[in-house]
């Protein structure tokens, strides 16, 4: 990545260490890219952000899957059926996304706007997650 931010590298490394798993260069690079992005990114957008530090496609997919399994990243599918990934931070629990139908940009919505989203599942069922995507036009495309 161009313009390496030492604080974001340290933040990525700290989050990776908290999993108790190995802290590897590919994991640090990908998590750092997600933390700096501030929104949901496609696999291709992550490759572009990594620039000369880009990983091979298979490694990038494996790292993204691993980050999701470990609870460090969130994966969602847009209307174009392309996976998008974003870093999970402390306040990034249940939340909705806004997807622009014109430019395709996906933005995480404020958690406060989705706090009232309580889903009552039938007795004996256990909810493990919820995905809500609001679609329309972003401020730049409206």
Task: Report on this structure.
- This protein is α+β, with helices and mostly antiparallel strands and 142 residues long.
- It has one domain: Arc Repressor Mutant, subunit A (Orthogonal Bundle), CATH 1.10.10.
- It is built from four helices and six strands, in the order ααβααβββββ.
- A three-stranded antiparallel beta sheet has the order 1-3-2. Strands 5-4-6 form a three-stranded mixed beta sheet, with no helix packed on it.
- Helix 1 (6-17) crosses helix 2 and helix 2 (25-37) packs across helix 4 (57-69).
- The radius of gyration is 16 Å and the shape is globular.
- The two termini are 32 Å apart.
- The mean pLDDT is 83.
As residue ranges, the low-confidence spans are none
Mean pLDDT value: 83
CATH topology: Arc Repressor Mutant, subunit A
Q: How would you write the strand order of the largest sheet?
A: 1-3-2
The number of domains is: 1
How many whole angstroms does the radius of gyration measure?
16 Å
Distance between the termini: 32 Å
Task: Give the amount of beta strand, in percent.
Answer: 15-25%
Tell me the overall shape: globular
Helix content: 25-40%
Q: H/E series, N to C?
A: HHEHHEEEEE
Q: Could you tell me the number of beta strands?
A: 6
Q: Give the structural class.
A: alpha+beta
For the largest beta-sheet, the strand count, sense and barrel status come to: 3 strands, antiparallel
CATH-level-4 superfamily name: Winged helix-like DNA-binding domain superfamily/Winged helix DNA-binding domain
